[in-house]
Fold this protein.
Amino acid sequence: MKFFEKNLLAIDIGSSSIKLVEMSGKDEKKLHALGIEILPRGAIEAGLIRDPEAVFKAMKKLLDRLGYKPNKRRVAISISGVSTLIKRVVMTVEEGADPDEAIYEEAKQQFHHNLEDMYFRFQEVPSAFLEEGQKAYILVAAKIEVVEQYVDLMHRLGLKIGITDCDVFCLTNMFDYNYPVADALTIAVNVGASATQVVFMYNGEFLFAREFFLGGNEMSQKIADTLRVDFDNAEALKISASMGDQAIAERVRPAMHELNEQIAVEINTTLTFFQSEEMNGRFEKVDHVFLCGGAAGTLDLSTAISTILKAPVQVINPFQRIDLTPSGVDMDYVLSQGSLFGIGVGLGIREMV
Ligand SMILES: Nc1ncnc2c1ncn2[C@@H]1O[C@H](COP(=O)(O)OP(=O)(O)OP(=O)(O)O)[C@@H](O)[C@H]1O
Ligand SMILES: [Mg+2]
């Protein structure tokens, strides 16, 4: 029992904004605070902090606004992007043999990287897909230099890092907590500003993940180019159209069509690779596609994905099973913009699993 321990603060530092989620509870989570601070464009790119000062200022502003005094407060952060490599592998391990060396060699092969400049961790995981003598492991490697950028940032703010996670595991935990599905192949997709992560799960078991660098930014850029407006205007038009403004939707729909298709095709290519290369044809179809991330509700995106994957697609609410009363957080905001907090919720759930 931790008598004087304060709640962990989950901090998702994305390329367009920083999201903070504070929850309490073990088996049942309760929301205490929610906050978002927009980052200047280019401050973070593909998971790399390009402008540490701008990110520091935005973090500070967010903490001040929510009334937090850092005072070595424990935080959970998540990393993603080009400097993070994740792979689930199945290996045959001799009884009594030490698998560490073999796993390290396997990781070098899988990641096509010598790993010397990376933190490397692995964990054995239970799996429904093993044959006699086999074990499943999740391998994670992250560039030391990049992880240290985030650690330095948190230390400069007076915060203490309790948990470092990866976006794809946050996504897996968040979906599994809110939408547990039995005996079904589920694809969880996080559509952000600069990247999209695709995670394959079966009964909550993480099977495969891929990230590609397309998201809400490209959509806005395409609208800006097509309608000859600046990026901020295009962003506003896109959001209005996605939130139900029919007249604006008619204006931006043609520009968005191609990018929606491109994202759907990327997900479908990933699915085909997963089915044939990763699972040897074990899954013939996908049962559910769940979307979250700020750009999940983009006009016509669900329809494009559903048509190309031939599967039902649902934009989910990361707070589905989280107790929201009385948190002081605006409920309308949670319902309309909740999908922005998918990674943050998954990061906060981490402590109890
Ligand atoms: N209501 C909305 N409809 C459509 N798109 C939206 C809406 N609200 C936000 N977006 C888009 O969502 C994106 C931001 O999503 P998110 O916060 O998940 O990204 P991020 O975490 O900052 O970026 P990344 O994870 O890619 O680094 C932006 O492109 C923004 O335009
Ligand atoms: Mg993100």
